[in-house]
Specification:
This protein folds into two domains: 315 residues, Rossmann fold (3-Layer(aba) Sandwich); 47 residues, no CATH class. 38% of the residues lie in helices and 18% in strands. The chain is built from 16 helices and eleven strands. The chain has a six-stranded mixed sheet with strand order 4-3-5-6-11-10, with helices on both faces. The chain has a five-stranded parallel sheet with strand order 2-1-7-8-9. Helix 7 runs parallel beside helix 8 and helix 8 crosses helix 13. The longest helix has 17 residues.
Length: 364
């Protein structure tokens, strides 16, 4: 396929792996912080091409996986109410809450619908004025512009039966939380190319300086990732800590200014709890006061409360790069995609789902 096959060339991949091996003189641990990159690494065996001294660990790069269980419970409660059409991307339907998931609500008669854009949900609201239409707004900075635009258009069109349940998280604060942790093992990052397409990478530059850690903005194909690893290892070996851009065909330093403007118009930065990790200051987005009427949490007045997660699930340690999925005692036995203990086994971007699909035969 044009524009894809050239980034999956086996000979070129072998040359990159050889160049990385020649460059490496000591062990290094590098974290990718994007679920799409995680799946590419495991699917194509990129980590197995690297020299033994290079360890790739998987960060909290799956927005579905880090959505707190309390918010899943709120989504379930809203979706079960009469007169509600609850809209979501498909990967949220099987994420377990305390008692059930959205797919169970649908099976019990709730009007839960899979949509491909928040603007689809807005059109549903316009077509069903007697119903309350709620969209589950989950994602990193990548999906924030479209979600913001749906609210912006709803307000200007006078649509009063539309709201969003917000679970937006921001990547740089999560990286800082990992770097400042006593358990941190990460010495370099591959930054998510799609996030940087929207936001640029100026926010990463202070992190590189403060923690003396190289950060390489990286794409999603095998050669992208191998080149990103090469650039990161080269910095580590040279004692440099800078932000470099491997994904130059897509990402600009300043990002997408119109997308940033609509985010800033509708959302404001807020603290956010990350499932398996805990609350990270200034790591989320919430609706600004002029758009508060479109906040589903306020509209449905659902009480919040602390929720205990499965004691068996080690997703928090996996998403902080401390452990890998096959090191979880429940992996592939008590935790499977059909009966998941945690979100990383459910989501198409989850690290556990990637290992289950591509590495289960080789794990114990």
């Amino acid at each position: 396929m044009k524009y894809v096959d050239e980034y999956r060339d086996a000979d070129a991949a072998a040359k990159y792996a050889g160049a990385i091996a020649k460059l490496t003189t000591r062990p290094w641990t590098i974290m990718e912080i994007c679920g799409g990159q995680t799946h590419a690494i495991v699917k194509f065996g990129i980590d197995e091409l690297l020299p033994a001294g290079i360890t790739l660990v998987h960060g909290p790069g799956c927005p579905v996986c880090v959505t707190p269980i309390e918010l899943i419970d709120k989504a379930v409660e809203i979706a079960a109410r009469p007169g509600v059409i609850f809209c979501s991307f498909g990967d949220m339907l099987r994420v377990p809450g305390t008692r059930q998931d959205l797919l169970s609500v649908k099976a019990q008669g709730g009007d839960v619908r899979i949509v491909y854009s928040p603007l689809d949900a807005l059109r549903l609201a316009q077509a069903n004025p007697a119903k309350e239409v709620v969209f589950f707004a989950v994602g990193f900075e990548t999906t924030a512009p479209a979600n913001a635009m749906s609210v912006y258009q709803a307000q200007r069109s006078g649509v009063t039966n539309y709201s969003i349940l917000v679970s937006h998280v921001l990547v740089p604060p999560a990286m800082e939380a990992i770097l400042s942790s006593e358990q941190n093992q990460v010495q370099g990052f591959l930054a998510a190319g799609h996030v940087c397409t929207v936001m640029g990478y100026t926010e990463y530059e202070p992190l590189a300086v403060r923690y003396h850690v190289p950060i390489v903005v990286t794409g999603f194909e095998p050669l992208d990732i191998l080149q990103g690893v090469y650039m990161c290892v080269r910095q580590l070996e040279e004692g440099r800590a800078e932000v470099e851009n491997q994904y130059t065909r897509v990402v600009k330093r300043e990002g997408n200014r119109p997308a940033q403007q609509i985010i800033a118009e509708v959302f404001e930065i807020s603290p956010r709890k990350w499932r398996g990790i805990g609350e990270i200051p200034r790591s989320g987005l919430g609706l600004r006061a002029p758009y508060a009427a479109f906040d589903a949490e306020k509209r449905f007045d659902i009480a919040s409360g602390a929720v205990e997660e499965s004691g068996e699930c080690i997703s928090g340690l996996i998403m902080q790069g401390v452990k890998k999925p096959e090191q979880c005692p429940a992996f592939g036995t008590r935790c499977t995609p059909e009966r998941p203990l945690g979100a990383p086994m459910v989501s198409s971007e989850g690290a556990c789902a990637a290992y289950y699909r591509y590495r289960r035969v080789t794990t114990k």
